[in-house]
Amino acid sequence: MAKAFFRLQKLLRRTQFLLFFLTAAYLMAGSLLLLQRSRLVIQQGWRGPPASQTLLGPGEMSRAGLAEPGSLQSPGPRLLGRLGALQEPAPDPRHGPRWLTARNSELRQLRRRWFHRVTSDQEPLQTAGSKAMKHTAEHKGTYMGCFTHDSRERTLKGAVFYDLRKMTVAHCQEACAERAYSYAGLAYGAECYCGNTLPAAAAKPEECNLECKGQKGSVCGGVNRLSVYGVEELRAAARRRRNVIYRGCFRAPENLTDTFPASLIQPNLTVEMCSEFCSQKEFPLAVIRGQECYCGYPTGRFSLREGADGLRCRTRSAAGGHYCLVYQTPVQDTRCTDRKFLTTKSKVFVALSSFPGAGNTWARHLIEHATGYYTGSYYFDGALYNKGFKGEKDHWRSRRTICVKTHESGKTEIEMFDSAILLIRNPYKSLMAEFNRKYAGHLGYATDHNWKSKEWPDFVNSYASWWASHVLEWLKYGKRLLVVHYEDLKRSLIPKLREMVEFLNVTATEDRLLCVENNRDGNFKRSGAKQKNFEPFTQEMKDLINRYILTVDEALRGRNFSGLPREYVPR
């Protein structure tokens, strides 16, 4: 018996030692992973090189994969005449484009891990046999019931909003009321739809069973189901907050009744009366000629591209029918808001490439609304996904999106794409936009403290070379390119957008393009109200950036593209 007990004790000691060893190994492995993760997070939050490190200069570009200005064709007098002789920046390959590419590769791995940890769609809160959720959350609208919802043929045909993190019933109701709609409907826990006509097909109350993403205990529709609320009570309060935007004075079309689908003749007609009437009819334009009010959309017959002198609308010729006043109602133009993934995988893998801060998100908004297809992303940006860019969550190599956003500029990453739209923006504007985004998000502004600290010079020294290397590397390794200048896209939206859509091998109708023009800003445009009372760029910064502008201009001309727009230099 004693012998058997001794053997058991010996076995237990070995097992105890083995468990201790495995536990220690597990803790060590976990510590190593945590340290590596912390290193990547620290790198992501990097604000610039130490003061002892300087930027790779244009004179050393050839050793970092960049073309020397003298090795390219002449940029033409418009840039050379204004740049003059500028001093060479001090060379240091540690902060040139290759260093940034290597750093981006590390950050890319971190972003991939974030992607796989994104919160999955929320499970229904109840089973079919359980009690339906009460609609007693904090809101003022009247609950109308649960209705069927088809995303391809929407029952509430007005404005559409997405917020996959913070959607609440009250938020949806207020958004619809401010845009003069009578009903607000919520689906999938995160989607808000507005309209003036109650859906016809009712559903079982228990089928609206998804909790709102931003409000626990409150129901926001279901799968193909709408929780609909009446917001008539909120419209009166929201009326004083509504924006009726004056679009200008325009020459009236020959036959207004054929051009506009709804009209009203009212003695003592006011702008508010006409706007309210057109909002009820769910039209984005209110057109006034004398005592006549017309409602409709921008069309080929009335495109709003050529305005007239405002004085003409105040003379007798306006009353005689030659000119009319045009106002933008709170109603959203919905002719181009429907989007979907490609039904079959794209045969051509297209990149939408740009330097950060060059307007990539805005270009994606335009492309999605013009084509009707989602755009993808090489990264995952939760803020964009939560506001309706559903392609953010799709794997970037799925080929289910019309094109893929990327800021990468390495040879391997470039050659993975069959073609690319290369979006270029003035580096001065790009650097400021990206600096604002890093410190205040997509819509905010960096503080004066940020601009006046050492972080801003370090940022310029690091990112200015990346602006140049990004263009040069895509010109060198890109297989088929369409170069689009941000400034040209702003000035000539429809012609440039049509060119981009044709490059993507998609046909967009004229009405859809006009709808895009009517919704051109999207949800990620800074207000522009915050103006700095100081010049953020020192002369040394300007000399550095102008050198890179010259290099990029020569490279573009060397590939038979038009050079950079005139306003790029000098500052």
Automatic annotation (TrEMBL):
Biased amino acid composition, Low complexity: 75-84
Region (Disordered): 51-99
TM stretches of this protein: none
Key word Glycoprotein present: no
Signal peptide: none
Matching Pfam families: Sulfotransfer_1, WSC
Keyword hit for Repeat: yes
Molecular function in Gene Ontology: sulfotransferase activity
Residues in WSC domain copies: 140-232, 243-336
Domain of life: Eukaryota
Keyword annotations from UniProtKB, A to Z: Repeat
Family the UniProt entry places it in: Belongs to the WSCD family.
Protein name: WSCD1 protein
Native source species: Hylia prasina
Gene it is expressed from: Wscd1
